[in-house]
């Protein structure tokens, strides 16, 4: 059997093979999140990396860092602590976190709207994990939810 032809390593793969195995940009001064499997996510990571003027801070949130963030969010003990973590998310990663009570009233924790502003590079799983971690924190420490509701005038000015 003849030997397999040698591939010239001076020329990178092109086409779909190149897209699947694209390496992170060499100009990123920090480790960035690995890409999600094709079709599994809507994070638009490639478009973010292709734009030289884009804010790629959100890609700092690697899977390991995301686990640490979720653990930190689950361990918050007050609304001030939660707001502080939200401010740090915005300052360090550019992620805008909005937590508001529903306009229709709050009977359970599902009545509290926890949203992350949509932005390129933010993984679909991360968009689900952060609000879920905040809800778990509010379940273990209901004072956070009470403080949020009091901040929005729970008693109607009474």
UniProtKB/TrEMBL annotation:
Region (Disordered): 1-31
Superkingdom as given in the UniProt entry: Bacteria
Organism: Cupriavidus pinatubonensis (strain JMP 134 / LMG 1197)
Comp. bias regions, Basic and acidic residues: 1-10
Record's protein name: Ribosomal protein S3AE
